[in-house]
Specification:
This protein has helices spanning 21-31, 53-57, 79-99, 112-125, 150-168, 177-181, 202-212, 237-249, 266-275, 289-298, 317-323, 335-344, 355-366, 369-387, 389-392, 394-404, and strands at 3-7, 35-41, 43-44, 49-50, 64-68, 104-109, 129-133, 171-174, 193-195, 223-228, 255-260, 281-285, 301-304, 328-330, 347-349. With 405 residues, it is α/β, with parallel strands linked by helices.
Length: 405
């Protein structure tokens, strides 16, 4: 039996908040006949606190779990986070050298230095290393801190480590074509690569939505426009709040803007809505996945909301948006995703950070139920064909098989 290490600093374990991608990868590979060690951190990124390791060890998993100590941080972008990841990278290297006996290492990037520790270990042992590229650092961090010269100096180690990782990869999985191809921007190598969207399990999404539909009350005449995700610098939530005000001024107060999630800008934007007395916007807060699914399915339109400079491509929430079977308004400027929206016909692309343009797009859907229905059906079909993990994640196992032959 081949043994695989799956390295990630961000994974949801049972009742924690967060992403399930890497847990699913571990389960999928275990079911495929591999012995799998999930190697993750003692620090829980979403709640910004240390995990209850003793409790987790009492829970049942198909795979093994190993923890590396990480001191943690309070903000998504600050020097403490960089230091915290550096310590995690050193501890990962120690663990791999002490306990590792793997046939292949599969690691997410970012964090770049953690991925580099895994890549260098694999290189020394002469085993394949697969990078799962699901974000771009330091590009994404420049959204929060972009000061000429200062940012270049501060982020240079991240850029350096990323390039080192990309030179050491044996295979690449990207959560979009753009991310899949990033390792080859500065080098030409003939190695296997696949695009595997983050996606979801449609059966889990549908079951959660069904169980929670009665908890999510929607008035008969209400038209819901919903965003689910982080409320931070990359996301154009301010324009959504102001679009709610604009629509109310147009005589359509029954169009309700629902903001699900939390983040560093939540209180500032909620306060702005209160001061301006914008009553048709609601900050729902964090909702467990199953309840979020119910909100998305009860909505009429979903907004993939980003600012102009955001570097994101095809993000985690897209699988859930499509699963809901609702039309999408997209403000993300990723050429890849804008082309997908247009080609697959499940929504419309608009320019970000423009209140009138967003309000016009919402009003257009509000006045055209047939358009909503048609685009929603296309969204669900794309979810079933391209984002349902039991099917789409086969590409990961096929790439691993190829490397282990």
């Amino acid at each position: 039996m081949k043994k695989i290490a799956v390295v990630t600093m961000g994974v949801r374990l049972n009742d924690e908040p967060g992403y399930t991608r890497f847990r699913y990868i571990c389960e999928f590979l275990t079911d495929a006949g591999y012995e799998v060690d999930l190697i993750t951190t003692t620090f829980q990124h979403w709640e910004k606190e240390q995990r209850n390791i003793a409790k987790i060890k009492q829970e049942d998993y198909k795979f093994n779990i190993k923890f590396i100590y990480e001191p943690g941080y309070k903000k998504n972008v600050d020097l403490k986070r960089i230091r915290s990841h550096r310590i995690a990278a050193k501890n990962l290297r120690t663990l791999l050298e002490k306990e590792g006996n793997y046939d292949l290492v599969y690691a997410e990037i970012p964090p770049n230095d953690v991925a580099l520790a895994a890549a260098e270990y694999a290189k020394e042992k002469g085993i394949p290393f697969v990078a799962d590229v699901n974000d771009l650092w330091p590009e994404a961090m420049r959204m929060v801190l972009d000061i000429p010269v200062v940012s270049d100096i501060l982020f240079y180690p991240l850029q350096r480590d990323a390039e080192k990782v990309y030179r050491l990869v044996s295979g690449v999985i990207g959560t979009s074509d753009e991310y899949r191809d990033r390792p080859f921007r500065n080098q030409q190598r003939n190695i296997p690569k696949r695009t595997v969207y983050v996606g979801n399990e449609l059966s889990v999404f549908d079951e959660g939505a069904e169980k929670n539909q009665e908890e999510v009350f929607k008035g008969e005449d209400e038209f819901w426009v919903t965003y689910a995700g982080t409320i931070g610098t990359s996301y154009d939530i301010k324009t959504m709040v102001l679009a709610a005000e604009e629509l109310a001024n147009r005589g359509m107060p029954n169009i309700r803007i629902k903001i699900l999630g939390g983040g560093p800008m939540k209180e500032e934007l909620r306060s702005m809505a209160d001061v301006k007395q914008i009553f048709n916007v609601e900050f729902v807060g964090y909702a467990p996945y199953e309840k979020m699914a119910a909100y998305l399915k009860k909505s009429d339109v979903l907004v993939n909301s980003f600012v102009k400079k955001a570097p994101q491509s095809i993000v985690t929430k897209i699988g859930d948006y499509l699963a809901a079977g609702r039309p999408m308004i997209n403000t993300c400027m990723s050429p890849e995703f804008r082309a997908k929206v247009e080609h697959d016909g499940f929504g419309v692309n608009i320019m970000p950070e423009d209140v009138k343009i967003l309000a016009d797009a919402i009003e257009d859907f509000y006045e055209d139920p047939e358009k909503c229905k048609e685009m929603g059906e296309k969204a669900r079909k794309i979810a079933e064909q391209q984002f349902d993990r039991p099917h789409s994640y086969r590409k990961i196992e096929e790439l691993i098989q190829e490397l282990l032959k």
